[in-house]
Amino acid sequence: MSQQQFESSIKIINYSQECVFGKLSDLNNLSVIQERMEDPAFRSAIKTQVPEDKMEQIAERVREMKFDTDSVSCNVSPLGEVSLRIIDRDHPKCIKFETANSPIPLNLWIQLLPVSESQCKMKLTVRADLNPFIKAMVSKPLKEGVEKLADMLAMIPYGA
C-alpha cells in the first residue's frame, strides 16, 4: 500500500470564508444540492460540464444521498452504502473527512482561504491508501471525482 494524494484546482467562491465554512461544516446544508439537481435552470447551466447521458445518472445518485450534521452517505453499486464523515473542523480554514464502509480508506480535506471580505479560495485534497493494482484502476476516476466535487461545491449558493 502506498499513500496517494489527489488535489483539485483552486476554486474562487464569491462568498466569505466564514459563510462557506459555516455551510460546509454542517452537512445538512448540502441537501440544497438535491433541490438544485431538480431545477431545470441549474441543469441547463451545467450542461456544458456534464454530458446529457450522464446527467440523469448524477441526478439519481444525488436524490439517493442522505445528509446529517457530520456525514453524507450514498449507495454505491456494488459496495452498498458508503459514507463520508467529518472528523475535524478547523474554523474557518479546513474541514477534514474520512470514509466509512468504504473498500478504499480515504481522507478528504476542504481548505478555505480568504481572498477578500466577500470572496474565498477553496481546494480539495484526497489521500488514499492504494495498492498498485487498485491505484491503476482508481487514480484517474479519483482525480476527476475530486475536481467535479470541487466544481459542485463552488456552485452552491452559500448566501441562501
Model description:
The chain is α+β, with helices and mostly antiparallel strands and 160 residues long. The chain has one domain (2-154): 2-Layer Sandwich (Alpha-D-Glucose-1,6-Bisphosphate, Chain A, domain 4), CATH 3.30.530.20. The protein is built from 5 helices and 8 strands, in the order E-E-H-H-H-H-E-E-E-E-E-E-H. Strands 1, 2, 3, 4, 5, 6, 7 and 8 form an 8-stranded antiparallel sheet that branches. The mean pLDDT is 88.
Summarize the structure.
This protein has 160 residues and is α+β, with helices and mostly antiparallel strands. The chain is 35% helix and 36% strand.
Major β-sheet annotation: 8 strands, antiparallel
- Count of helical stretches: 5
Q: Separation of termini?
A: 43 Å
Count the strands? 8
CATH superfamily: START domain
The total tally of domains equals: 1
Flag low-confidence runs.
Answer: none
CATH architecture: 2-Layer Sandwich
CATH-defined fold name? Alpha-D-Glucose-1,6-Bisphosphate, Chain A, domain 4
Global morphology: globular
CATH class: Alpha Beta
The helicity comes to: 25-40%
| Share in β-strands | 35-45%
Kindly provide the radius of gyration, computed on alpha-carbon positions and rounded to a whole number of angstroms.
Answer: 16 Å
Helices and strands, in order, run as EEHHHHEEEEEEH
